[in-house]
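Here we describe the complex-level prediction in full. Unlike the single-chain runs in Section 2.1, the two entities below were treated as one system.
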Amino acid sequence: MDPLRLLTQATFGPDAASLARVLQVGNAAWIDEQINKPVSLHRAAVANLGAQPENRLAIWWQRALTAADQLRQRVAFALSEIFVISDVADTLAGDVLGVTEYYDILVRGALGSYRDLIEDVTMSPIMGRYLSHLRIAKPDPIANTRPDENYAREIMQLFSIGLWQLDQDSQRTLDAAGRPIPTYRQGDILALARVFTGWNYHGALGWFDYTPNYLPMEPWEAFHDQESKVALGERFPPGQLATPELMHALDVICDHPNVGPFLGRQLIQRLVTSNPTPAYVSRIAAVWANDGTGARGNLGAVVRAILLDPEARTGHLSNPAFGKIREPLLMQSALWRAFGASTPTGVYSFSLPDYVLAQAPLRARTVFNFFRPDYAPPGAIAAAGLAAPESQIIDHSGAIKIVNRWYAVAFEQGPINVDLTLVTGLAANISSLLDYLDMALLMGSMSSALRTILTNHLSQVTSPSLRAMDAIYLVAASPEFFVQR
Amino acid sequence: MTYKAIVCLFLEGGNDSFNMIAPRDPAGHAVYAAARGAMAVPRVDLLPIRPRAGADDRAWGFHPAATRLRDLFEAEKCAVVANVGTLLQPTTKAQYLNNAVPLPAQLFSHSDQSTLWQLPSALDNTPHGWAGRMGDAVLAMNGGSPLSPVISIVGDTRLLRGQSVAPYSMGADGSTGIDGAWGGDGARRLQTLQQIQTTTYPHVFQRHIAAVQQQALGIHTLVQAALAGAHPLNTTFPGDPLGKQLRMVARMIAARQALGVQRQIFFVRQGGYDTHASQLAFHAPLLSQLGNALAAFQGAMAELGAEELVTTCTMSEFGRTLTSNGDGTDHGWGGHQLVLGGAVRGRRFFGTMPDLQLNGPDDAGLGRIVPTTAVDQMAATLARWFGVTGTGLHTMFPRLSLFGREDLGFLRA
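The structure predicted for the assembly as a whole is:
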């Protein structure tokens, strides 16, 4: 069931309308159509509802469950797990509109140019507060201070090139002695930290004026370090103003050959499979380097290539370990979309998913996200040399809390309700019921073993509505739903 | 055989431990203050302590927010392991600057140094952390209890993984059972879930999820009953995340007999230490919370009569730069750690206090202090106390003998 697989990879979960559309126009045309859909932003909607943390999440759920630009929303969420900020941090707690505007940067830039996106991310005062490059002053020998290294380090380690030099297939490049080669040294960080000096809030009245807003930061030249610098092998001449020097540095970072394989591989992991073959990463890195029109870092083209790649479409046929463990938030959204979730109040209140699902949008504990791209749990996955990043947040306690959450979805109507009319109507015939749930939740891949277990169980449940709820709960609780293949 | 437990408390982000404990004598403080600039704690604000040993005839003090830590230190329930860090062999500043000895990979990176703190230094590609290896070594002492000897309250971590043992991850709220098991239908639903979990699936990820669910529910019955039957704690813990985590550890220790275990290692975590910005505002409450939670935990151990049986150690991926960016500090290398408990030879410094002079003999640059004690030495000292003996210790820490003192002496035999 390729359209269901595509929708599982590219949206917050298949629903009847999206399935019909993919079947009608085909994979490639559907992706192009999605790329060109009007953009559903978040901040204005949150402001309308009231700038409270729960409303930021309510609008996030509304977009995830109902927005027409599903692909953009889905990629923006993936990017929010790479270009991480978090309102768990004291520096951002309470700044609901600022944090939401940061999310809108990702929504707007999700399918555009990486160079533009990294500039918007860097200039955001929200990122500037989170990674503390807002208001870095040039070195002061008298006060014995030097520029904050935080953003200089993390923009390289996490947002662009990573720690190790990579071949285009994302394997580490080795030196003559067979050792991996660091992409940068402490000296590069010190130099880049000086590039990032002299940025303050838009419209600040003085260097220490506290005028928080979410508009792009502005340069304060008196605080910018104009001495010459060398970072990543590039010489930054003396006497440069803050803006051209920052643009120069971002150009250098974006042109680094690591960016395509480093970020391309992570986008594949977020959308399609935890362990892409080197050849798949190479193909995506090539599109990153050149989208066909000569443009580098065209994220729309990269996402299109990731989704249309033969490995994304048919990898499950040849590779028994193809696919990924689903993120808990994406399991929740897929369940709701599969059963036409709605809310009588119009407000999609599910405000603290952290506790039961171990994640919430823009609420990771640190800039290292909820899980690391190379995480492998102990046991067979680690022994096989595979990564399963999402399993980092599905530990013993988490795995059961998630199952209990599905119990609530199936059996207890809450602020967000599933529509069980159709499923209940099918429930008289267990086989039809399971066929439907197989398509709705498992991309038509339900194993005969699971089907037998469910059939035996459901045959002893007589009430159609209870049978429907039981069936949804048990399918969602099964390891087959937890894994996207 | 007596019960023993180790609690590993990770201070996430890189604790500025050179502000947690700082020189208090005028000359020592002047050197410290010159290096730290705006980040320096004023001399008069430091909480005086009277170390019995290791203080090099200088005066030292705790950060003013660390009153409870100071109290624990003065009560001889806490000691300081000075300037510990990731090392592959003893390393001088000159050797570091000239790249003359092998160095830990990716110094100053959070993710890498967090991992290296959890592994024996010789084995930086191993999936198995030093506490997991200790779990392997003592597994037989637990008499076949189905509960893993290594338990995390905050999710899986490399530290706890061994060859034979894998961490059991419970929440600060305990273990979790199935909601759908209520009522008559519930029992059958639970039975079906168990069938689903014990089916063999074709995909390794599906098998993993099934195994995690199955382990979780299997252990839940044991843990839930043991916790319910354990001596209820009268000690009040803080309601912050660390307080809740340590309270759960204390409850598990209270339930040790019903759990049927003689050796346990717990992992807990306090976040927020990456103080690049607003350090003066953010560091103080962290140390205050740390002290309050640890004081409550020691109180609970006293209440359980288990003070001598339980040792807590802090870990943190790195210390921070002595120099500042005016508002905070950046990633360093060596830093001080605390060890606590009734078996600790408290009110002492172990290892060597570093020279805090900028560009001095211990400064690798901008006040990144070269460690003078290796993580291996601190971990091996804990392992010996835990019951890992001679050759076992050197198998566990193959580079241990390179570092000189294999037992730092902070634990009574």
